Amino acid sequence: NSSTLAASIGVQSRSFTYDAVFGPQSRQIEIFDSVKGIIDAVCAGYNGTIVAYGQTGSGKTHTIFGNEGLQDNNNAGLVQRSLKSIFRKIAEQSLKTAEQSLLGPSSPGAVAGEPIRTSTKAS
User: Fold this and answer.
1) What is the pLDDT of residues 2-44, one digit of tens each?
2) Handedness of CA 91, 97, 101, 103 (dihedral sign)
3) What is the Cβ-side half-sphere exposure of residue 93, based on CA atoms within 13 angstroms?
4) C-alpha distance from residue 43 to each of 29, 40, 89, 103, 117 (Å)
5) Backbone angles phi and psi of 25, in degrees to 5
6) Angle between helices 28-43 and 78-103 in degrees, nearest 10
7) C-beta of residue 1 within 8 angstroms of C-beta of residue 20
8) Would you tell me how many other CB atoms lie within 10 Å of the CB of residue 28?
9) Does the first or last residue of the chain, that is N or C, have fewer Cβ atoms within 10 Å of its Cβ?
10) What's the confidence (pLDDT) of residue 117?
């Protein structure tokens, strides 16, 4: 999945490896799909970085920010898509937390967080 670029300047030669390389016909959703794992990792508490690298005029700003209109889902950039994904995950987690609070303890032998005690003594 990674791509390697070899560059030579005079007698000096270097090689660079990229996780992904996209051409001018790539769609915004394809690019986002390739970095979605980074967004998931960030939501799990890890650090993540997404870098757009390329020649002047190659579309880095468009890739990161998309078109001006935030409502245009087809041309939304990585920032809009990432934030939407992060906030969706926060909402899902909040919903799970709220459901757990409403349902109470998960063990059937507990009420209000206290274990049920039974007595075997005869009265």
Assistant:
1) 677 777 777 888 887 888 888 888 899 999 999 999 999 998 9
2) positive
3) 9
4) 20, 5, 8, 25, 40
5) -90, 0
6) 40
7) yes
8) 20
9) C
10) 60
